[in-house]
Amino acid sequence: MPPKTRKSLSPWYKCDVCHSILTHKNVEKHAENSCPPSEDNWTYGFIREGTLHSVLEECLSLDVLKNLPKSVSKDLVLLSQSAMQLCELCIGDPAMVVTREGILTVKTVWPIQEGNLTSVFMTREGLDMSCIPHSTQVILKKLGSLPTPAKEIEIIPSNQNLDIPESLIHHQLLGSILSKDYKFKIPYYGKVQTFEVKNVKPMSSYEMKPVAEQALEKKMNDLNIFESSGDNEPILEKFFKVVQGTRWINSLKSRNRSSEDKSYRKMNRLSQIGGLEEVIEDLQQLLFLVFQKGTQVHGIKNTHGILLYGPPGVGKTMLAEAIAAESKCCIFHVHGAELFSRFVGEAEEKLRKIFEDAVLSAPSLILLDEIDALCPRRNSSSLEQERRIVATLATQLDGLGDTAVVIIATTCRPDSIDSALRRPGRIDREIEITVPTPGARVHILHKLLSTTTHSLNESDIKGIAQAAHGFVGADLAALCSQAAHHALASRRTINLPDMQWALTQVKPSAMREALVHIPNVRWTDVGGQKDLKLQLHQAVEWPLKHPEAFQRLGIKPPRGVLLFGPPGCSKTLVAKALATESKLNFISIKGPELFSKWVGESERAVREVFRRARQVAPAIVFLDELDALGGERAGVGGTSGSSVQERVVAQLLTELDGVEPLGDVTILAATNRPDRVDKALLRPGRLDRVVYVPLPDCETRADILSIQLQHMPVANDVDIDELARCTEGYSGAELVAVCHEAALAALEQDLEAVAVNKDNFNAALNIVTPRTQPSLLQLYERYLSNTS
Predict the structure, then answer these.
(1) For 627-679, how does the pLDDT look when each residue is reduced to its tens digit (9 = 90+)?
(2) Could you give the C-alpha distances from 302 to 291, 306, 672, in angstroms and in order?
(3) CA-to-CA distance for 348 and 327, rounded, in angstroms?
(4) Beta strands of 223-339 (E only): which ranges?
């Protein structure tokens, strides 16, 4: 057997005709059928002109990759060391891989000892991620030039329902090289999402330099008299590398944002908003100063942060969206709760990306709805994620500088927002949107009714607006909707009875938590008490119906009225009649129900009652059994109250006559023991009208009996005047009890009785006797003499 030559020891064979390099076992195939071999469909692997033609296989041996993390191994293409030398490749070089199906990808070269000269391997993760089928023909060659760092990569997801965070995509593809139309897969909670690269924007040479060099180059360019071409040069590069500063853009989300912007511009218009003309003018002026170049005063920064706050339903979000639609700028709508994520840092990344997109799309407007949910006040009990979001938002607001970006935030609870965001330079302009006045309600009703057919005239609309005390814009919209539904039953046109019926069905939003069922009690149901009725008219109805008279004389209407007197003398009944006749929002509070065993809850309940009353003003707050709520404090000359009661009294004093005015809120209080009420509550400016409701006199008793006997059949021998004379010392409640007992006595005699006679009333008078003690009446007389 002849000795082996040096040529036979070579691991490959090089054809002298076509200069192809192949393995020895494929020499006969090459010589007989294909010299040079076909580059479209080959039956064996070969290398020609530095390009490897082979079949891609899955790497089953994990020993070569055991020291490499999966994040690196999925981007590798494994070759023999000989093939790397023939293709002029070194370890870690990028190589372009093209499959027979036309899939183009770039992988990092890594040596492997398995296989032969032309073997090409990839891991299963790498094949799946690059959407490459197994055992397919591939062409591999060295990447001609270094890829350009990618600035922005726009991708299209295959599944619209599976929302994978961009931060996860960036983490998976960091360091990868890709091109336009490149497809890749990302696993996410057991599901795989396929993406396609739609467009890539490269970084400019200026952006790839360190920050110090950027600043120096910017100063030098400022001295140049020629304009720089910037980023408008044609993109010649085909491959791009994902770097740390690469931004990902989801094409579907951008499309949804564009359609959302169109929906804003289609649905919300400033012409459809009524009652907020001054606020609209203020906002338009602020946006004009930021969006229009040359309007900035030298040395003074424009306002970039605006906070709209007010009660729910006044139109904060609607106004912000309408302003955005009219401004013809790019809109970014952010709902506070939507930013939160289970992944650490993802919420902050989303927020940073929104601001970056807004700066790139300037002029732009960022709407932060319910900012109190996004940036609550930081304290020891707040979550770590909330603290990071507050810090991120503060940093982004500080970085706006001279950009044409404006942030409009809305909230119902401005005190819940972290104070770091409310300083000048961040959200430095706060605009309150209050409950609409009667004039503003007229404008809102005109806007709402302009889209439907109705037969209401101007006086009808003004009457509805006057009756809708405390209604916000959302309540007025619900009012018109209820009236329209009521009108559909018989006709197509809304008229005044429909609106009046709707007023009985729709209540102010702020009153729904403390909605009180008001009995249908009229002034005619209250016997006598002419002086009491007159004083209540002066305190409640006169300021509303004749405000110019009070202004002309330079006086303020009474703030509160205290009714005191024996039990059963119609103090509470008068309050019910006042609630019905005045048609004002009525909040009834029983003294004991405000107390709580938790420290601070009782005072908070008092604050909440008055806050709600101010919100739905004009309103009446009725404090029944005031002695239980506002008892005399220690050291004032009476029995010392508990510490909780003292704090409640202090809170009441602050609410009645504190820094924040009550406005059109009237306080009506009732008690049987005025001597136990704290004296500070009774000074002028608080409960400045103290009205004694005595036992009814003979004339008043006759009126009460007449009202009660209107619905009771009585015999001819019953004389109301005689009954009134016989009931000296009886209270109103006891007179009602007398009539009730007389009717029961008539039924006791005969279940078929059709009328109540005099004997029945005499029997009732023996059962129901006066229960007001003389000592209590003497107490009232002493109290009156002391206060007078």
Answers:
(1) 877 777 765 444 444 577 788 888 888 888 766 677 778 888 888 888 888 88
(2) 10, 11, 61
(3) 28
(4) 240-241, 247-250, 305-309, 330-335
C-alpha span between 723 and 737 (Å, rounded): 13
R_g of the chain computed on alpha carbons:
42
- Residue carrying structure tokens 């942030």: 407
What one-letter code names the amino acid at 262? K
CA atoms within 13 A on the CB side of 444: 26
pLDDT tens for residues 158-211? 877 667 777 788 888 888 888 888 888 888 777 788 888 888 888 766 455 544
Which H or E element spans position 73? helix 70-73
Residue linked to tokens 């930013």:
339
Burial of 45 (0-12, 13-18, 19+ CB in 10 A): buried
Residue type at 695?
L
**Comparing C-alpha atoms, which of 578, 786, 564, 558 is closest to residue 694?**
564
> Side by side, which strands form the sheet with 305-309?
330-335, 364-369, 405-411, 305-309, 429-432
- Could you give the count of Cα atoms lying within 13 Å of 506 in the half-sphere of its Cβ? 27
| Structure letter (DSSP) for residue 117 | T
The stretches in the chain having pLDDT less than 70 are 1-10, 62, 161-162, 204-237, 252-268, 293-300, 336-338, 379-382, 492, 510-519, 591-592, 634-642, 658-660, 788
Counting beta carbons within 10 angstroms of the beta carbon of residue 76, is it exposed (0 to 12), middle (13 to 18) or buried (19 or more)? buried
409's enclosing H/E stretch is strand 405-411
